[in-house]
Design brief:
Layout lengths: L1 E6 L9 E5 L5 E5 L9 E6 L10 E13 L2 E6 L6 E9 L2 E7 L1 H6 L17 E6 L13 E6 L6 E5 L2 E9 L1 H9 L2 H9 L4 E6 L14 H14 L5 E3 L3 H29 L19 H10 L12 H10 L2
Parallel strand pairs: 9-10, 12-13, 13-14
Antiparallel strand pairs: 1-2, 1-5, 2-3, 3-4, 4-8, 5-6, 6-7, 7-8, 9-11, 11-12
Length: 324
């Protein structure tokens, strides 16, 4: 099992090398370098037939390990230095994109910090709704959090209070941010978030990474983000460098939103009762739980339910009464 890098025979291509990964019958990528030494390398996936019959080999290194883990392929080369790297798969502008990165390039964007374990806003058990369409959701390990999976009307992580969706956070990787902004889907997503009492967009990268993009004009992306903030100033867009810090920021934001929502109505009732309604009254109805979630709750409360199929209306009524 070997990792092969050859010269790209297509002289018109801006990516001068071909990378052959021995996985699933062979994966071939066009790339701009032979190793991600100073920055992650963009890799364009092509058909295995694009590998030449008589390649001009530049690098030929034995592999100790080549394993797919989720949306990434981990490579361990059989050599002493520069032996670990990772191919990270994502989708941007409707097509596959792959970035080849090493521990060194990852470390450049990884701050040397340890996230705190103190409860967000002092909330002992925060329940966070995770959108059912999230492929690799945050797990909030090490925090006082319970998660439930439901289809959110907007955002990826939501907060429910008194049957209403009062806060939500939309998570974006850098590539997803760029593709959704270029395709105009981010505009609609932020517009939906703006209808909530509290909402935000968190990006798992640095703002400076926008100006290192080579497949799209950085100024176009920067202008698009600025336009979103001007149009919807109540939905902040926060860059948090890494996935770990983005998860921590999401937890802290939803914890603060929970404390605010609990105190909002009581405060208005004391100091300005003539206002009548608050932002919470305009919040949309929270999504209904899944049948599996209600079935598990019913069994925990000694209510007889079938192993599969629909639940009786009185079971749903009991769940709503208990969570009202």
């Amino acid at each position: 099992m070997e990792l092969l890098i050859a010269v790209n025979p297509d002289k018109d291509s801006k990516l001068p090398f071909l990378l052959l990964v021995p996985l699933s019958g062979g994966l071939v990528f066009r790339t701009s370098g032979t190793w991600p030494r100073t920055k992650a390398l963009y890799c364009h996936p092509v058909s295995v037939e694009d590998w030449p019959d008589d390649p001009e080999i530049v690098e030929q290194v034995a592999l100790r390990s080549c394993v797919r883990r989720g949306a990434a392929i981990d490579l361990v080369l059989d050599r002493g230095r520069e032996n670990r790297s990772q191919l990270v798969f994502t989708v941007a502008r409707g097509r596959d994109m792959v970035f080849w990165q090493s521990p060194r390039t990852r470390k450049q964007a990884r701050p040397n910090v340890r996230t705190p374990t103190a409860r967000a806003a002092g909330v002992s058990d925060l329940q966070i709704i995770v959108d059912s369409r999230e492929q690799y959701p945050y797990r909030f390990t090490g925090q006082q959090v319970t998660t439930v999976t439901r289809a959110l009307p907007c955002g990826d992580y939501g907060l429910e209070l008194d049957g209403r969706l009062v806060a939500s956070v939309e998570r974006k990787s850098l590539s997803d941010l760029v593709s959704s902004l270029a395709g105009a889907t981010l505009r609609y997503a932020v517009g939906d978030l703006a209808a909530l009492p509290r909402a935000a967009v968190v990006v798992e990268d640095r703002y400076s990474a926008l100006f290192k993009l080579d497949r799209v004009r950085p100024a176009v992306i920067a202008d698009g983000l600025a336009e979103l903030q001007v149009r919807w100033p109540n939905v902040p867009l926060v860059f948090c460098e890494t996935r770990q810090l983005s998860e921590e920021w999401t937890y802290r934001f939803l914890g603060a939103a929970y404390t605010w929502a609990q105190a909002e109505r009581a405060t208005i009732a004391r100091i300005a009762p003539h206002i009548g309604t608050t932002d919470l009254d305009q919040a949309p109805t929270a999504p209904e739980p899944s049948t599996a979630e209600v079935r598990a709750w019913a069994r925990a409360n000694s209510l007889a339910v079938p192993d599969r199929g629909k639940l009786r209306p009185e079971i749903w009524d009991a769940w709503r009464a208990a969570h009202r």
